[in-house]
Amino acid sequence: MKVFVLTGAGISAESGIPTFRGINGLWKGHRVEDVATPAAFTKNPELVHEFYNERRRQFLQKNIQPNAAHFALAEFEKTHADDFLLVTQNIDPLHFTAGSRNVLPMHGQLLEARCTVTGKVVPWTNDLSVRTADPENPHRIGNLRPNVVWFGEMPLGVQRIQEAVQNADLFLAIGTSAVVYPAAGLVEQTPANCKRVEINLEETPKSDAFTETIRGRASIEVPKFLSRLQA
Ligand code: OAD
């Protein structure tokens, strides 16, 4: 069975990371969509850095840990390693912390920085600013950006994602609002005979495209669903 899992912010909500569209969706009066763009970074890089610095610091807090849903996926993968792909829209590291291996973070990872000149990606846990010197090339200042995908940029690994989704026997979407493309459209690219399961607190605009919808918290419903699958 070829398993394709797509996760969104809802899987990390119970770990203490707020979802994007959950609360009021604003950050210091800015819409997230207005901060997370290449144009915003060109116009006001300090503002964009500040936005991500806050999030990075939060990810590094000791109390931010994977929950039962992340762990259940990592356990499940151990018995399906060859036919398992976990595509996450999340920029937090919790799938990795939980022990998942075949993870494709399609919107990048915030605990990484990317050089805007060379494209080189390095692990990164400090704040970034326009004054940050590149440790690889210390005379270069302000060339590092968070290694995350902004609105208007191409998600990572799109070709691999397409191939995997078109061959999936099980497509499992967990905690994603299904409004941001291309992730939102993946369910419609699965083969006709694919089992399509959505786990979410609420209905989403794509719920009708699934063969089974489970309403509830990821930390409860994901372990339950995966153990039912293995029984
Ligand atoms: P959203 O914040 O849009 O949606 C979170 C979803 O999780 C909602 O549908 C909630 O109902 C659901 N949810 C919340 N808590 C849950 C829980 N405990 N158990 C199950 N479901 C729960 O987050 P995403 O769909 O991930 O992109 O957002 C997609 C993209 O939009 C993000 O990757 C980011 C954002 O702007 C970029 O930054 C490029």
What does this structure look like?
The structure is a single chain. With 231 residues, this protein is an alpha/beta fold. The chain contains 8 helices and 13 strands. The strands form 4 sheets. A 6-stranded parallel beta sheet has the order 5-4-1-11-12-13, with helices on both faces. It has a 3-stranded antiparallel beta sheet with strand order 7-6-10, with helices on one face. Helix 5 (68-79) packs parallel to helix 8. The chain is globular and about 55 Å long. The relative contact order is 0.19. Bound molecules: 2'-O-acetyl adenosine-5-diphosphoribose. Residues 8-10, 13-14, 19-22, 32, 36, 89, 107, 149, 151, 175-177, 180, 200-202, 204, 217-218 line the site of 2'-O-acetyl adenosine-5-diphosphoribose (OAD).
The whole-angstrom Rg is 18 Å
Helix-strand string: EHEEHHHHEHEEEEEEHEEEH
Instruction: Tell me the overall shape.
Output: globular
In what order do the strands lie side by side in the largest sheet?
Answer: 5-4-1-11-12-13
- Beta-strand content bin: 15-25%
Mean pLDDT: 94
The tally of helices reads 8
Question: Main β-sheet: number of strands, strand sense, barrel status?
Answer: 6 strands, parallel
> What is the total tally of β strands?
13
